[in-house]
User: Fold these one by one.
Assistant:
Number 1:
Amino acid sequence: MDRLRLPAAPLDILAPGGTLIIASQCSEGFGSEEFRAAQTRLVALGPERFLATLTAKSLADIDEWQTEMQLKAMRIGRVQLYTQGLDAEEQRITGVEMIGSVDTAVAESIARHGDAAVAIIPEGPYVVPIHAPP
């Protein structure tokens, strides 16, 4: 990913209480000013109050849908982010848990959930993961 954004594709396979680990270079920075404003409001208000502001209006602000997608994942499970492309303030307003190592986060997630099933989803608009239980 060139800028911070939460893909919607993992929502269909993220188990309740599961962990979504995102590795993103964020080489283009945080994203648009509108996205930054939405994220700042999310962190200031908290997920429930932020969501209430969304449902109270008839039209979403520009790039607000990205923050809404993040909220969907946060309601299902834990969201963690590894990046070296955001400064401390940008990391704070992601509203998710920052991690220092993808390897460590994956190992801790496997141990926490007692399940070694891991999905790795490359960035791309045409990837739609589907979980098919054995």
Number 2:
Amino acid sequence: MSRYSQAHSIGELGGVVRVALYERKIPFVGIPPTCRAKFATGKGNAGKVQVMEEITRKTGIVWEGKDADDRCDAWVLEQMLLAKLGLSSYTWNRDQLKGLDGVEWETAGL
């Protein structure tokens, strides 16, 4: 499968999931990769490896295995929501918290 086909399929899947959530009145928030990177590292252009390294440095959690970057991303997204709600058990600096600013939280009623 070509890269274009993979990207196209992922985009379609994302659309199907969004429609299903909308039809069931389940609130959701789309978080741009740059916001995830900014929150994790303080820099919006950080790559997945930089995100994992920074989160490991901050938390001591070691991300290993084939899907380590995806698991780390999911953890960061969870922490973003917890930080938005004031419930994160971690301290995030001002630059990292700016990563929350680019997210349209209102779509989920937050």
Number 3:
Amino acid sequence: MLSYLLAQRRREIGIRIALGSTRAGIFRLFLHEGIVLVSSGLVLGLAGAAAMRRAVENQIYGIHQLDPIVLFAAGTLLATVALSACLWPARQAAKVDPIIALSAP
């Protein structure tokens, strides 16, 4: 998702860099957008887990309703993987050359 946003906003990034934004600022901007996406996904996932707790409890032996250890472990693992996946597009956004981005049609 973040890579798609990068491709769509390449011209905007070129303008930001040409107007004086630092590459670190662009990196933080895209990383922040990734964090917002990951956070909203975790909240929706937790709400979905709470809604489906009866079905999960009946299907998986030894897991109680809203087991905090399992929810924390799964959320931490998924958040780590998702945030790691956000680093690459954020680095690519910071490397955009403003001359190439603004000259492309």
Number 4:
Amino acid sequence: MIMLPRTIEVWAYGQPADLRKGYNGLWGLVKNELKRDPLGGGLFLFVNVKRTGCKVLLWDGTGLCIFMKKLERGRFAQLWDATGAGAPVQLTSSELSLFIEGCMLVGRKSLSPAALTSKDLAMADRV
């Protein structure tokens, strides 16, 4: 299990990806398709068309890292629509962990409570 702070941004690529891609190929998908900065500290999730494998790309401050998981049985949740060309999906770090563990609800239903802001906490003090 990957332990990540809740505040880290996790972006799932909204269509099937070719997991033969390495650092440069995934970097290109992040820059050109997701329109995100791969060096911005976020994590980027990619899933193959059969949904039996996934890769997570991240910048750890010293270099790019790729984590990969291949399922021997079953499939990962489908994060794209039936046409296979969906928009990127933003996940929480908890939802990423659930996705990697095989939870089928990830991407379909919010599984994490909304993040608290300092304004929310200030309003709670008034009660």
